[in-house]
Write a structure and sequence with these properties.
By secondary structure, this protein is an alpha/beta fold. The protein contains ten helices and ten strands. Helix content is 29%, strand content 15%. It has a ten-stranded mixed sheet. The longest helix is centred in the middle third of the chain and has 16 residues.
Length: 306
């Protein structure tokens, strides 16, 4: 990997939601677990030593981050090492005390997945009780009121079950100091066909430009869309980054991307919507970027992956 300034650390693979656009509740086969605090600290210490270009740590992956009871301790440890911290959550475990702790710790941003502000649609999309959306919205408002220098980001995926809710989402947050992003959902490689088309890009760029994806067990996966870890390239607990990015696994994936992925390539990437020219229509709404600007940037620190 030539360069990246972001490492994404999956601290938890358990989730309390069953979102219809996410493979977690239907096709996720990895162990549902929480990363031990000792493992997290080891990873942070190794990143500080071996990857000086990395400035940002994103708490994300295939699980709800706040199921991890040690999450705040992990965040504080990473901040003490001078990392910018991005936290992704469905918002269901947020409370005033947790929000106060996050803001006091100084996280860079808090990103809440909120696909509608309507109770009926919320239940259809997430499988959660209708009252939960009200509770989540209350905590978002509390976070906004007490955010300090932390940015609040709201993201939504739009499908048939909530396609009538776009205008209400925009109106609800139009006067709030938040970033609001509304998207057409991803396919998660070959799990769904929300986005269709022919491969027009030879590579998504992630193989060369990151971000670095560290899974809950300390292994490194090539791509955040590979939810079952089929594109593993190494074990950061027992290997150095230099060893991992000179491994047979990484070099084989890199070679295929250098040659150019096609629909006949013998790799999981061959079915990925990230190789389709998405067009600006996948961005339904964004109050920070134009649709053209937003495509091709990461969902955390908005760095280009191409």
């Amino acid at each position: 990997m030539t360069s990246t300034n972001e490492a994404r650390i999956e601290t938890c693979t358990a989730c309390n939601y069953e979102c219809i656009m996410c493979p977690h509740s239907t096709s996720f086969t990895r162990i549902k677990e929480v990363m031990p605090i000792q493992t997290f600290k080891l990873i942070i210490d190794k990143l500080k030593k071996e990857a000086p270009l990395i400035t940002d740590i994103t708490i994300s992956g295939f699980g709800e981050a706040f199921i991890d009871l040690k999450l705040l301790e992990k965040i504080k440890y990473a901040i003490k090492k001078n990392y910018n911290i991005h936290v992704l959550t469905n918002g269901s475990f947020l409370n005033k005390a947790t929000i106060d702790d996050l803001m006091k710790a100084g996280i860079t941003d808090l990103r809440v997945s909120l696909h509608t502000v309507k109770a009926n649609s919320y239940f259809k999309v997430t499988g959660q009780y209708k009252k939960v959306v009200t509770e989540v919205l209350d905590m978002i408002h509390y976070a906004i009121e007490n955010k300090g220098k932390t940015s609040i980001i709201i993201t939504a995926d739009i499908m048939d079950d909530n396609k009538e809710d776009v205008d209400s989402l925009i109106k609800y947050f139009e006067n709030e100091p938040v970033t609001l992003e509304i998207w057409e959902p991803h396919n998660w490689v070959n799990w769904r066909d929300y986005r269709e088309g022919k491969i027009t890009k030879r590579s998504c760029g992630r193989v060369f430009n990151g971000p670095l994806q560290i899974q809950v067990d300390g292994t490194i996966n090539m791509c955040c869309f590979d939810y079952n870890g089929k594109l593993l390239i190494g074990d950061f607990i027992n290997q150095s980054l230099e060893e991992i990015f000179n491994s047979e696994e990484y070099l084989a994936i890199k070679k295929l991307h250098e040659e150019g992925i096609t629909e006949d390539s013998d790799i999981l990437c061959a079915k990925c919507d990230q190789l389709i020219d998405p067009g600006k229509d996948i961005v339904i709404y964004n109050n920070m970027f134009s649709k053209e600007e937003r495509i091709g940037k990461t969902s955390t620190n908005y760095r280009s992956v191409t």
